[in-house]
Write a structure and sequence with these properties.
The structure holds two protein chains of two kinds. By secondary structure, chain A is α/β, with parallel strands linked by helices. Chain A has eight helices and eight strands, in the order βαββααααββαβββαα. In chain A, helix 1 links the parallel strand 1 and strand 2. Chain B has two domains: 217 residues, TIM Barrel; 94 residues, no CATH class. Chain B is α/β, with parallel strands linked by helices. In chain B, helix 2 links the parallel strand 3 and strand 4. Chain B is globular and about 75 Å long. In chain B, helix 2 packs across helix 3, helix 4 crosses helix 6 and helix 7 packs parallel to helix 8. The chains are: A alpha/beta, B alpha/beta. Chains A and B meet through helix 5, strand 4, helix 6, helix 7 and helix 8 of A and helix 1, strand 1, strand 2, helix 2 and helix 12 of B. Bound molecules: iron/sulfur cluster (SF4). Iron/sulfur cluster (SF4) binds next to loops of chain B. Chain B: It holds the Pfam family Radical_SAM. Chain B: It comes from Gelidibacter sediminis.
């Protein structure tokens, strides 16, 4: 085998798929690798593409191993940075894991280490997006009695917010749907499930149409919009700060901004 | 509920409540155990921000803006010619539940003008909270205003349903209060505060023995002071604040720059700017006292009665106490690190953790995201390279101000961006 050869690990884009790929890296002591997700498939002329078949058992072994080498915070940081979907994130994660396995002490808090620092920064921006979603989700009551929200987060944060919404809205059915990634979370009063919707033709998620939403839904939206206006203090107006907190790309689905 | 009526009331009663700046919805630990609605275990979320940049976390309304008092600084005062309205208990409950279910809010902040009597008003506030908890199984956040002069029994009941209680002392000095709200006296504010404080202590100690003892105002008490309405100094404000923190175990004191709402000659006239920068400096001082280990008299004392507007209070303190600097980041303890201008608590903790791995130099500090542009004058690290000029305080101040003009003009926010 050519030592210097680059191996392209093509996996299904899931976290388990990635961990399976990492397993292969360790197993076959691969030196130069890169990762490829389904949406980023490019034929590479050089290098040898390996198709990774997601294997939960292998993924689990890697994950357990890494958990024994990092704090809970460290492993959460790994997972949430993965959800950033940034190109090349896998390489950073792999580097982090390799260092963690080698080191005798947990490296999580070694902020003068470039990889640790980089990962903690990425995890931080994913964390910020998670908080934004917890704040900016706006449910609307559908005719079927389900509280329905659409979002388009910068990162794939639905897996991270599931628990928060489940414990908060335990007595109502709800759906949080990521329009960008085409899947959502559905809570049926018992458990949260991943779901995909066939949205009706011409469905505009920014409109509250009586065909789908209850009559009182629009009233509550109006009351909320009024509240938003009334609670503002004009003599303290500071739009710059406002936009800094609520960047414009989120306005689309914020009921208080739909006027 | 009739939509138009409710809409009208909401406009009036949200407008009247907006001058209360408290927005906190954290620190409660009320979890959703019985599959009810809501939980208030987390950090408290800002669901939106007003156009003035303040956090919107709670539905903040008055139950009514009818009031028998005539406090000069308040829009709700009896003599003010404004539209009045009053919610029914059930209306407030419905609004809260429906807003909460849509993820608009973390909960309710209910205050009120005083109609008929203190007890009559407090009773209704308590009724709202009780209904939310017992009938709606609501576990979201509830902040009730303690009405000055309300009876101990009512305050006790309030604490069983509310997460937080607050009495706004509004005017920092006794003299100011006498001038602007002659019908009120300080004891009326303090009495419910004392009652709540004692109940909290008692419930906490009982909970240690009997786990099923109900929680009592788990997010504690807070208060608010109006800044710039009665000619008080920063020293008077912060010493009062310190007194209330220590004496009543308050969780938060809020500072609200006075917004001119009246032509009363005792007050700043309409059109006067809201003292937002001063307000921001007071919040910074408050943080230094609560999280950075500063004592109030280190920052404000009889020689130094007002905060500098051109530099933040931590930098101000450092410039007056140059003998403590430079500080060695590889050796100094937490409290001394926290005193380095430009260094926030987050950076302090990062330094403490990272220096266990190796001695830190400038490069490390920079990589960790420590803002060095001002800190560099006040610290040494594992490098031979440090500020060697023997600068006097005024020289240093002018260098720092020159290098940070953009920062100085930065958007101001009372709640965030404290030392960013
Ligand atoms: S008692 Fe309260 S509501 Fe009434 S005027 Fe005074 S401050 Fe305003």
């Amino acid at each position: 085998m050519l030592i210097s050869e680059e191996h392209i690990l093509s996996y299904d884009g899931t976290f388990d798929g990635f961990l399976t790929a990492v397993f292969q890296v360790f197993e076959f002591k691969l030196k130069t690798v890169s990762f490829q997700r389904p949406e980023s498939v490019q034929e590479s002329l050089f290098g040898n593409t390996i198709e990774i078949v997601t294997d939960l058992e292998k993924a689990d072994r890697v994950w357990k191993g890494i958990k024994s080498k990092t704090s809970a915070r460290g492993s959460y940081r790994l997972y949430s940075s993965f959800l950033s979907e940034q190109s090349g994130i896998e390489i950073v994660l792999l580097d982090y894991m390799q260092q963690a396995f080698k080191s005798t002490v947990p490296i999580d808090s070694d902020f003068s280490n470039a990889t640790v620092l980089k990962l903690s920064q990425i995890a931080k921006s994913v964390g910020r997006e998670k908080h934004r979603m917890e704040a900016f989700v706006r449910f609307r009551l559908t005719n079927d009695g389900i509280y329905f929200a659409t979002v388009e987060p910068d990162f794939d944060v639905l897996p991270l917010i599931s628990k928060h919404f489940k414990s908060r809205y335990a007595d109502q059915k709800w759906i949080i749907y990521d329009l960008k990634r085409g899947y959502g979370l559905y809570y049926d009063l018992e458990k949260v499930e991943i779901m995909q919707l066939a949205l009706p033709d011409g469905f505009d998620a920014t409109k509250t149409n009586r065909d789908y939403f209850t009559a009182s839904e629009l009233e509550f939206q109006t009351l909320w919009q009024d509240y938003f206006v009334s609670t503002n203090i004009k003599s303290r107006k500071n739009l710059k700060l406002h936009v800094q907190h609520v960047p414009k790309r989120y306005w689309k689905y914020l009921s208080e901004k739909l006027r | 509920m009739s939509f138009e009526r409710t809409q009208e009331k909401l406009k009036i009663l949200a407008d009247a409540a907006k001058y209360d700046v408290s927005c906190a919805s954290s620190g409660s630990k009320r979890s959703n155990t019985s599959k009810g609605l809501g939980d208030a275990t987390g950090m408290g979320i800002c669901h939106s921000y007003t156009e003035d940049g303040r956090c919107v976390s709670l539905l903040k309304i008055l139950l009514t803006n009818y009031c028998i008092f005539d406090c000069a600084y308040c829009v709700t005062r009896k003599s003010n010619d404004i539209k009045r309205a009053a919610f029914q208990v059930q209306e407030v409950v419905d609004l809260t539940i429906n807003f909460y279910r849509r993820n608009y809010i973390e909960g309710l902040f209910l205050s009120s003008g005083i109609f008929k009597s203190a007890d009559y008003t407090m009773e209704r506030l308590v009724a709202v909270a009780k209904k939310l908890r017992l009938e709606e199984n609501f576990n979201g956040y509830i902040h009730l205003k303690s009405i000055p002069g309300a009876s101990d029994e009512l305050m006790k009941e309030a604490g069983l349903y509310a997460d937080r209680l607050s009495v706004n002392i509004e005017i920092p000095t006794k003299e100011g209060l006498k001038l602007l709200a002659p019908e009120k006296n300080r004891e009326d504010f303090i009495k419910p505060m004392v009652k709540v404080k004692n109940e909290i202590i008692q419930h906490k100690s009982e909970r240690k023995i009997i786990k099923s003892t109900p929680k009592f105002a788990p997010a504690g008490q807070s208060t608010q002071m109006i800044i710039g309405a009665s000619g008080e100094s920063d020293q008077q404000i912060m010493w009062t604040s310190n007194y209330f923190y220590k004496k009543f175990n308050l969780k938060r004191v809020y500072y609200s720059g006075y917004i001119p709402i009246s032509y009363d000659s005792r007050l700043p006239q309409i059109g006067t700017d809201v003292p937002m920068l001063r307000e921001n400096r007071l919040y910074q001082t408050d943080w230094l006292m609560r999280f950075y280990g500063f004592e109030v008299h280190e920052i404000l004392n009889s020689e130094h009665q007002n905060l500098d507007l051109d530099v933040d209070p931590k930098l101000g303190w450092a410039l007056r106490n140059m003998e403590h600097f430079p500080i060695d980041v590889n050796k100094a303890d937490k409290f001394m690190l926290a005193r380095i201008p430009g260094l926030g608590m987050k950076s302090v903790y990062k330094i403490l953790q990272a220096r266990q791995f190796r001695k830190l130099n400038w490069e490390h500090l920079k990589r960790m995201g420590v803002a060095l542009n001002r800190a560099k004058y006040f610290l040494v690290c594992d490098s031979r390279d440090f500020e060697r000029r023997d600068l006097t305080s005024p020289q240093l101040k002018s260098i720092i101000l020159q290098n940070s003009t953009s920062k100085y003009h930065k958007v101001l926010s009372p709640q965030l961006n404290l030392f960013g």
